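Re: export button greyed out
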Amino acid sequence: MAQQQGAYYVPHGSKWPIVGAVGMFAFMWGAAHWINGNELEGHISIAIGAAIILTMLFGWFGTVIRESNGGTYNKQVDLSFRLGMMWFIFSEVMFFAAFFGALFYTRGLSVPWLGGEGHGAITNYYLWRGYTAAWPTNGPLDIGGAFHTIPAWGVPLLNTLILLSSGVTITVAHHALKAGYRKQLLVFLGFTILLGVSFLWFQAHEYIEAYTHLNLTLHSGIYGSTFFMLTGFHGLHVTLGTIMLIVIWLRCAKGDFSKDSHFGFEAVAWYWHFVDIVWVMLFLFVYVL
Amino acid sequence: MATHAATHDDHDAKPSFAQRWLFTTNHKDIGTLYLVFSLIMFFIGGSMAMIIRAELFEPGLQLVQPYFFNEMTTMHALVMIFGAVMPAFVGLANWMIPLMVGAPDMALPRLNNWSFWILPFAFVLLLSTLFMPGGAPAAGWVMYPPLVLQSGESLAFTIFAIHLMGISSIMGAINIIATILNLRAPGMDLLKMPLFVWTWLITAFLLIAVMPVLAGAVTMLLTDKFFGTSFFNAAGGGDPLLYQHIFWFFGHPEVYIMILPAFGIISEIIPTFSRKPLFGYKPMVYATASIAFLSFIVWAHHMFTVGLPLGGLLFFMYATMLISVPTGVKVFNWVTTMWKGSITFETPMLFAVAFVILFTIGGFSGVMLALVPADFQYHNTYFVVAHFHYVLVSGAVFAIMAAVYYWIPKWTGHMYSERWGRIHFWNSVIAVNVLFFPQHFLGLAGMPRRIPDYNVAFADWNMVSSIGGFWFGLSQLIFVGNIVYTVYFARQKASARVWEGARGLEWTVPSPAPHHTFEVPPVIMPGMLAHDDVSH
Ligand code: HEM
Ligand SMILES: [Cu+2]
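Workaround output, generated via the alternate export path:
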């Protein structure tokens, strides 16, 4: 359509955005009801919302892929997509920053204060006498009961190696795509997916271990809170990333993407690297230190 | 040339109502949607303020239950911040940024539509809590734990509503950044952009940086309440103050999110009606950037009384006071732009001049609050309420109104009623001072904020303030009347340039701006831009 030289491209209207908004509303409405104990109403509304959101994703991405394959987009549109993805990832970085901030603040400042350091001396004396600051901790009242932590040099190290190598395989896949080696592309992208899945498998295993043997749960005071929220949100992102990888693999298998125009692939690769870097931070600050 | 390439569907047939407004990818329509939504929210939030001022008209409890009063203060703030002020600025950005940089639309038009349509749903979630068992959230818009964790059913709804608003803001901001960085017409260099565009670029960055942090903070509230975490529970090793740190790491940049676009608007209007180029264009840009940077390192000035270590108090006091330097640069430049200009005072200019004066008063009270020992007295009193209403009502809201009067001829092709614009202005500007100036006295005398009843010693100024409040509220009906008049009834046609002294690409397209503008990049001629030769 809008491919004439020098012309801008403005997409035609679409029903998907408002469909998405309705789906998000139904989902959140249901989630709030569910949390407040209205199980049935909540579940129904969540299910409807999720179904609508999925339909929207298929429909919207489908439209964009069709338009893109049809050669509708120009360089400028491509750059807009890139900027969009970059800043979206930046917003995700800031979301994780809030939880890392919570970890650093409690470890570095408020737990020592609870233990009587600095201006916390009097509070410690009157409120929490006998509590000595330490990390890991579940607080002066031993919330959740005694627990053990997961040693860094076992599964977490393995998972670090897994994610780091997945960063390599996706880069190899990208080079293969640019060089036009379809087969190599599919194989290495496939490896990346397998690595993502095995990361999730080990992570699930670790959670089960924590809950069944270590008594390390979401209820284990501030350690359990930061541990599970950080690794949990990260795991959620790996899950999303893996789904995105699978979609990209299917598209590659179908023959989508050309040597020099494959923004969808690159966006997923960026996202995957972001998830990778977050994990390295997690490994360092949650497990090792 | 290729003018109606991508848009032929709009020319072929008149789109149905749903196609036009629900499925739209047109920045002008989406801008209009945002602005109408914002106006509705302004009146919903305003009615809550009227309830608050009616209860405070006299000492004693007369109209509402204390708990409902708290619901009103909380909801008033949430509705005004997230429903009225922020969407109004996004609406103005949608309408004007593509016109100002010579772009055909926003960079990601469908995302744009999504950003908007999330908002009404988010507010259905939020406002529905008013009708729930246990009522709406009542722990203040800052939602401090442990108090907020005692909310009833409303907590989860409020948190999810905030998540939705955050998603909407982030996507809107991404779109604005992509538009400004990628869709500028050839020749529209970064340092030739109108200041409204510059301030929005920086605001969008702030939004993407801090809305996710707010999302994180309220998510921790959610898990603390419903899933057994201990982020804000000292018994489990957490800290209630952690919430305040995270919240204000969002919260202080948030107040600049609500004022930087206003700075941009004022920097457009004052040169136009002074018939002089803006004084100090580059310093304005750099001042905006430094304000944005500093806004990340001042958050604990909201927490001076919670028991921070002395070093922290000092750091945050000095950092906060530093902000008044770039802010001072701005005020200086606005005044200097007017200096020796041939000024006329049409309604937008009246609001802009009032902005400069009244915002500065708010800035002064801010600097007073930034002094740690003084803030020990002022914190949580009506002095704080006076401060932020000066910067937000006679600041942000006045700038929005100035912008509407300034650009509505471009939007509709008709002039608003100047006479009623002036009547609206004079009523608003007097009423806003009757409303908020006495609150300084009340605060200095020790009247706490968020309280439905008070000592009789505070009776007189409260009554004055309430009268100002009703007066201000009623005056806004004139505003709505004038808008309706301009859109549907006005006869006087607006020219393309509209204002004699206006410069910039947005004034080169006809009024009303056609549904699609700049479908091919405009050729920028010398003298077309307001900031053409800022090199020296
Ligand atoms: C020179 C600039 C400014 C300084 C030094 C400043 C300083 C402060 C300080 C120290 C407080 C905390 C007072 C307390 O709670 O005891 C405060 C509160 C507040 N300020 Fe400002 N401020 C400035 C500009 C602004 C602007 C531009 C806005 C918004 C447009 C704003 C909005 C607010 C709000 C909403 C609060 C109250 C938040 C709450 O507790 O609910 N301020 N300001
Ligand atoms: Cu602040």
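The pocket of protoporphyrin IX containing FE (ligand 1) is lined by residues B 142, 255, 258-259, 301-302, 320, 323-324, 327, 363, 366-367, 369-370, 375, 378-379, 384, 387-388, 391-392, 395-396 (CB under 6 Å). The button fix ships in the next patch.
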